[in-house]
Amino acid sequence: MKSSFLEAALKRSEKFQLGTKYRFTPPAGLKDLIIQYLDKKKGPPHELAVDLGCGTGQNTRLLAPHFKEVVGMDISESQLEEARAVPGFSNITYKTGRAEKLPFPDDSVDLLTAASAAHWFDVPMFLAEANRVLKPGGCMALLGFADNYPKFTYKDCGDKLSSIYQEVKEVLKPYTERPVFESENKLEGLFQAIPFPDKERIEDFPLKWTISVEDLMGFISSWSMFQTYRAKDPTGAEHLLVNTEKRFLQEMGVASPKAEVVRNWEYFCVLASKPL
Ligand SMILES: C[S@@+](CC[C@H](N)C(=O)[O-])C[C@H]1O[C@@H](n2cnc3c(N)ncnc32)[C@H](O)[C@@H]1O
């Protein structure tokens, strides 16, 4: 029998699947900072990294050159299928499983990561498991991007585009689940709850992202809150997307939704090391 927690997580994972086209690979520079942190706190060898909530494996693959073995774990088998279909990473294994119940022995993992996923975890259960499986000196790195202050650039209308985007987020606020706010808050609650004294948070690792207006609408439609809204009001949701695209194109003075804008993101990363 499935626990109610697992059932709720699996139900959410139906929503996550819709978003796979709009998944981002975290910045390589941030990954380098994570590896440097691990080297400072634990040092070599780098035997095992586990990427939790790995989805289709973007972050998992970034880790592959740095470890003897990398395991990507997710509650969604269909996302893991997509991850497994990417060739060329012989040291990666993908497993179905939950961040709250890890199939690893005590003191066996060098690095635990989660990219845009830790806000969905049950924090006390996950932290207990992290404490159990990490080697002494082993580290966790929980990264993601906050979407609080969007900054678009396009000729002289970047500010207008940013405020249109912000309006969309306001419309969707009533449909936004608490974990999404925790992510926007750069995992503040989870950070405070980490029992290791050695912890820090990178708050604003910059990334520039060029995206077409069409794909930006696709990205919005992949948000869990958009899908909740669409389930309740399909016409309203459709109208929101169509209207937002139209307003973007009008401000930009272009006709084609393939026109591209630049978006500045800020990644964050919670880092912590288990005491030696
Ligand atoms: C927004 S996606 C991020 C996927 C990927 N890490 C990325 O950066 O694109 C969140 C992922 O977390 C997974 N997930 C949610 N709750 C989980 C849990 N408790 N344990 C493991 N995976 C979970 C979902 O199935 C989904 O694939």
Automatic annotation (TrEMBL):
**InterPro entries this protein is in?**
Diverse_substrate_MTase, Methyltransf_11, SAM-dependent_MTases_sf
Superkingdom as given in the UniProt entry: Eukaryota
MF terms from GO for this chain are: S-adenosylmethionine-dependent methyltransferase activity
What range does the record give for the signal peptide? none
Q: Name one Pfam family in it.
A: Methyltransf_11
Cite the Methyltransferase type domain residue spans from the record. Answer: 50-141
This protein is called what? Methyltransferase type 11 domain-containing protein
Task: Look up and give the organism this protein is from.
Answer: Oryzias javanicus
From the broadest rank down, the organism's phylogenetic lineage runs: Eukaryota, Metazoa, Chordata, Craniata, Vertebrata
